TrEMBL record:
Protein's recorded name: Sigma-70 family RNA polymerase sigma factor
InterPro entries, sorted: RNA_pol_sigma_r3/r4-like (IPR013324)
Record-linked SUPFAM superfamilies: Sigma3 and sigma4 domains of RNA polymerase sigma factors (SSF88659)
Length: 240
């Protein structure tokens, strides 16, 4: 992968990488550091993957985030701190608050599906679990989030919709989930429950929100420096 393709690939995926790492670390400064290291490692290994291979990128990001988290004795478990900065995307902050009491793995799987939009088999590769386990986690987490949005709601009402039933069973496809997002974005549907509408609108917003502008600008500068540094090393290596 040449420089042009690499930059296009990374810039088109940078927001998703950022929010995935943020869901793991819950800290903006640490997230930016890990995303920068992820990009640097991907740049060094760019010949080993294609410009569509997001699994490789997220596996690297996950490895580096876990190393970052394990380096702090005060962090009781991966990805759970209360350092949600004021300039963080409020939609992401809401997602973090809804998943605060879940296990790190549950929140991670939900993030990879709802924000990053990875397929089941890709998620299973990233987190190292079987597809059935991924589906089971999604089923549990989706029902928990729905219940937290609507404390007095009933879980029986989604059974009237075949696709919605598959969604809460953790077995819906990406295409079906996109259909549900469009369905619940229509505010004039009287038969839509408020809990389901709020949940899907949350994920719709999360998937379209860019990272904070200051983070984007800093990453751009660091990418340029990484590539410039690499070019210098290659140039001087010729004359050794």
């Amino acid at each position: 992968m040449d420089k042009s393709h690499f930059n296009t690939f990374i810039f088109s995926s940078a927001d998703k990488i950022y929010y995935y790492v943020y869901c793991l670390l819950r800290n903006q400064e640490e997230t930016l550091e890990v995303v920068s290291l992820t990009i640097e490692e991907c740049w060094k290994e760019r010949k080993k993957f294609s410009h569509t291979d997001m699994i490789y990128v997220f596996k690297i990001a996950r490895k580096l985030a876990r190393l970052k988290a394990s380096g702090f004795e005060k962090r009781m478990s991966l990805g759970y701190t209360n350092d949600l900065l004021a300039d963080t995307n409020p939609v992401l902050t809401h997602f973090c608050s809804l998943t605060q009491d879940l296990s790190p793995l549950q929140a991670e799987v939900m993030c990879l599906r709802s924000m990053v939009r990875l397929r089941m088999d890709d998620i299973s590769v990233v987190v190292g679990l079987g597809i059935n386990n991924v589906q089971s986690i999604l089923s549990v987490v989706r029902k928990v989030l729905r219940a937290r949005i609507d404390l007095n709601g009933t879980m029986a009402d989604f059974k009237n919709n075949e696709v919605l039933f598959k969604y809460y069973s953790g077995k819906s496809t990406l295409k079906e989930e996109e259909q549900l997002r469009l369905y619940f974005s229509r505010m004039d549907l009287s038969d839509v429950t408020d809990a389901d509408r709020e949940l899907f609108q949350l994920f719709l917003k999360m998937g379209n929100e860019p990272m904070p502008s200051n983070c984007s600008e800093q990453l751009l500068l660091e990418i340029k420096e990484i590539q410039k540094r690499n070019w210098r090393s290659s140039f001087f290596g010729i004359f050794k």
